[in-house]
Amino acid sequence: MAELVSTFSDGELYLIELPLKREGFRKFIGSWLLKSEDGQFLIDVGPAVALPQLLAALQDLSVSQLDYILLTHIHLDHAGGVGELLQYFPEALVLTHPKARQHLQNPTSLWEASVRVLGDLAYFYGPIKPVPTQNFVDQVPQINTIETPGHAPHHLSFLWRNFLFVGEAAGVYLDLGQGFYLRPATPPKFFLETAIGSLDALLKLVDDGTSICFGHFGWAPGAKRILKLARQQLYRWREIITAACRGFQRQEEKELLVVLMDELTTRDPLLESFYRLDPAIQQRERYFLENSLRGYLEYLRSRLFC
């Protein structure tokens, strides 16, 4: 299912939703298709399990050729389908962080790490197939590529005209009609200074006319405002988590996570809408929210803040 996000004199921008056959996994994973005189670009491709939906959407949009595939990072839910997608579009050139190439050329270690971190969710997403060396490219014309580590060490964001594609550098977003939900994407290993530095780098590049396009899920006008809110949220989490965790021992993490969930969904205005989410989506978000909390806790403990 593709949503036309914007039209311009030489093309269109589409958000392709990739709903999965798992409870709550809708309005979650998106792939961006940019059709312009500069070429046909696909930003993130989703997991291998979603490839049939992606191919169907590209066919509906009359895409018979892809010039470039841009990967914000190589987690399975963003890049897992890339190797198999190239079997249908062998001409496409792939842009990813140079240090991530080896993991796409030989994805064995990437797959093993994914299974360790995600467990059965990795098997649900499906294994990633190798990307041929000749398909990689160092840069893409008309695309400003920005290194934005934080959510992942090899994370990139892309700026094309007045559209900023941030992957998970600014967190996870969901438009609720009246207001929106925004949570940090801070799984282990997380480093606050690195994530803040990436947001600062993006803030220097955008203005009030820039729209922000998320990997999870959707888009919003006013990229500068959203980036500032995401930055403030990271510092807010540091304050709330640090205060809450001081009375807990490491072996009490399960109890601490329950307390933190309550504290954050009450005191973080960007999370207050958590309990207005559809119950299935809420359950999905609870899983990933706890993962983000574990990353933040690990960071604070390494700094002896709690």
Automatic annotation (TrEMBL):
Domain Metallo-beta-lactamase: 28-216
PANTHER family registered for this protein in UniProt: ACYL-COENZYME A THIOESTERASE MBLAC2 (PTHR42951:SF4), METALLO-BETA-LACTAMASE DOMAIN-CONTAINING (PTHR42951)
Protein known as: Glyoxylase, beta-lactamase superfamily II
Chain segments annotated as coiled-coil in the UniProt record: none
